[in-house]
Amino acid sequence: MGKLFLIVDMLNDFIEPTGKLYFEKGQAVVAPIQRLKAAFRAVGAPQLYVNDAHPPDSQEFAVWPPHCLVGSWGARIVDALAPGPGDIVLTKDALTLFAEAAAEGLLRGFGASRLYLAGVATEYCVKACALDAVAQGFSVTVIVDAIAGVDLTPGDAERALATMEQAGVMFATTDAVIAGLA
Q1: DSSP letters of 140-173?
Q2: Isochorismatase-like domain: which residues (predicted)?
């Protein structure tokens, strides 16, 4: 069945120290995601970046400070994970890619039945994308050493993992995913 790698919100505003919603744990997942990108590319599996890109009047700013504004440095993918040839960059003005009407059809158009997720933040966009993907009938594997949580309240990321597990999301390490692709 078709495998697809989703890289969630690896953007300057979250990963770079001068970013508007920077959190230190986000930098730790850059290296595992680099390895995963190379492995998925080696087997010809599609790679999709799922990125926040908010207009100035985004409803998200009722909860969060302005970040990842369309066209800004903060909304750009970090240099270390720059898209390569054939990679697809999708934008969203919500926690989940599936808030965009065409998302499910696009993923199915790639022949995807299994989605592998990496990126930030565990308890927000990663969780929302994973839960919505399961609800749309995709098999979902979250790569646990390639995600990072903010943990505004201690334990938020762990609770998000438990919620995802209850919904049927599977978990694997970078090494296990790479070994399974070979």
Answers
A1: EEEEEEEEE---SSTTHHHHHHHHHHHHT-EEE-
A2: 4-175
